[in-house]
Amino acid sequence: MEPAIRTRHQDESRPDRAEAAQFQALLEYLLDDFAPDQLIACNGHPMIFAAMAQAQKRGITTVFAVRGFGYYEPRHFEHVDQAFTCSQFLTDLYRDKVGLISTPIEPPIDWSSVVAPNESRAFVTFVHPAPHKGLLVFARLADMLGSKRPDISIVGLPPVGEALCSAPPRVACARTPLVLCFRSATYVQSDPCANSSSPRSRCARLRPYQ
């Protein structure tokens, strides 16, 4: 198993200096030991942008996965060679807002198999309840539902990455921020950390305490 870092500081606006140093040291190790050709990163944590700068200095192609709103400053793409989004909507939005040329890659999901029919929908669900993702608005909606529609159940779920930490050997898995390193001709799976047993792909993330 590759080394992983367990962290307590997840606020992107207030990164912890010691944990940032650990993350950078781990990335240096992976770049030296694995010598990837590509680095794919996502998340707005300052360590992510430092990682892309670090990789670009070595001549490694950097790719930034844009999966949400808010990356509207030039610094977000200063060390990005290529960008992809999770929808045509986001690709169009970033092109119009900041002139970013990106490739939309739709999630490999058969929606008919995961979207419940109207008559069997049981919950209002919020994945990754955090202030910067609209927690306060959701809390207000939950309060309104509790008063007017107590029959509707409300569920809050941790980030999807929490379920991916039982990764096979040679893959260091945990939650955000996320950096993936690949060599040429590597097959990029829809979820590298969940299924990759190949030594040709590795990832390093930060794992928070709950």
What is the ordering of alpha helices and beta strands? Answer: EHEHEEHEHEHEEHE
Radius of gyration: 19 Å
Q: Globular, elongated, flat, extended or rod-shaped: what is the shape? A: globular
Structural domain count: 1
The portion of residues forming beta strands comes to 15-25%
**How does the major sheet shape up?**
7 strands, mixed
CATH class: Alpha Beta
Q: Label the CATH architecture.
A: 3-Layer(aba) Sandwich
Mean pLDDT reading: 75
Chain-wise SSE layout:
Elements (H helix, E strand, L loop, with lengths): L4 E3 L9 H18 L3 E5 L3 H12 L3 E6 L15 E4 L2 H11 L4 E2 L6 H4 L8 E5 L7 H14 L4 E5 L20 E5 L9 H4 L5 E8 L2
Parallel strand pairs: 1-9, 2-3, 3-4, 4-5, 6-7
Antiparallel strand pairs: 2-8, 8-9
Concise synopsis of the structure shown:
By secondary structure, the chain is an alpha/beta fold. It is built from six helices and nine strands; from the N terminus they run βαβαββαβαβαββαβ.
Please give a structural write-up.
There is one protein chain. The chain is α/β, with parallel strands linked by helices. It has a single domain (5-109, 160-208), classed as Rossmann fold (3-Layer(aba) Sandwich). Helices cover 30% and strands 20% of the residues. The chain has 6 helices and 9 strands. The protein has helices at 17-34, 46-57, 88-98, 111-114, 135-148, 192-195; strands at residues 5-7, 38-42, 61-66, 82-85, 103-104, 123-127, 153-157, 178-182, 201-208. Helix 1 packs parallel to helix 2 (46-57).
